[in-house]
Amino acid sequence: MNLTDVAVLRALLDEHGLHASKRHGQHFLTSQAVVEAILAACPPEASVLEVGPGPGVLTRPLSQSRRTTAVEFDERLRPVLAASAPEAEVVWGDALKVDLPSLAEGLPAPRVLVSNMPYNITGPLLVRFADMTGLFARQILMMQREVADKVLASPGDRKRGALSVDLQSRFAIRKIADAPGGAFWPPPKVDSMVLLFEPLPVQPHPGLKPLLRVGFAQPRKTLANNLATGLGRPRLQVLGWLESLGLAPDVRPAALDAAQWDRVRACADA
User: Fold this and answer.
1) What is the spatial distance between Cα 243 and Cα 265, in angstroms, rounded to a whole number?
2) In what order do the strands lie in the sheet with 171-179?
3) Which pLDDT value is given to residue 239?
């Protein structure tokens, strides 16, 4: 059963009277090249927690060679997943509410998290996944290209924001595949990208994330103004921090790398 063949996938769904749900933002992956890129990034010895398996396009090959638990919201897909990926354990529920850490801990290490994230909950899912850093050796996540560009944005890039710095301070991140609209059925109007997240050996200070929210409160303003306003500190004091770190007084939040942000955090905590 090759579910990357649209005719095969449609026949399986038709057999059970199903279709992709617009309400759930369902677009099913049908690119063999993208599937192979994801499988290649998943170590053969790893167990897998898959979030959002849909009809099982990825679940089927993953579960044929690896212990796999999948979390799916749409219970209409029960008979479809039973047919396409009988080896997988499927947990039915909302990925934003299901106890994902407990599911992960029930799998043998090393573990990999795999998810083709629905567009309408990508942001909240990224936050959940990032907070499970210690549970997975790798996270292989597909997301809308616009979001992926923000995740990857380097210092100085106008797309860089609090999300970019937060994730880059926790993970080594790289692209493993492009997934244009034509890689899905039905094809969405936007392109996607698959990113590989590997936890860094040293995780950031817990005070960094709240500082990023303050520092990027108004990204087009200077960092000094954002910090002075958000932290309730005298602007001259904040300017002193920046000077001590070799940063210009008019530096913008997007210009700093993760290490510089942590040094700013240390100044604010002192």
Assistant:
1) 14
2) 89-92, 68-72, 47-51, 111-116, 138-144, 192-199, 171-179
3) 98
Residue 251 sits at φ, ψ, to 5 deg, of -60, 140
Q: What is the DSSP letter of 184?
A: E
Which contiguous run of DSSP H or E holds residue 185? strand 184-185
Phi-psi region of 219 (alpha: psi -120 to 50; beta: other; left: phi over 0): alpha
Lowest-confidence segment of 23-32, 65-74, 150-159, 220-229 by average pLDDT: 23-32
- Segment 45-97, tens digit of pLDDT: 999 999 999 999 999 999 999 999 999 999 999 999 999 999 999 999 999 99
Quickly state the pLDDT bin for 170 (edges 50, 70, 90): very high
Q: Which long-range contacts (CB under 8 A, 24 or more apart) does 229-238 make?
A: 231/268, 233/268
- Specify whether the CB–CB gap between 154 and 67 falls below 8 A: no
Which domains are seen in the chain, by residue range?
6-199 (3.40.50.150), 208-269 (1.10.8.100)
Identify the helix (H) or strand (E) that includes residue 126: helix 122-130
CA nearest 72: which of 47, 49, 44? 49
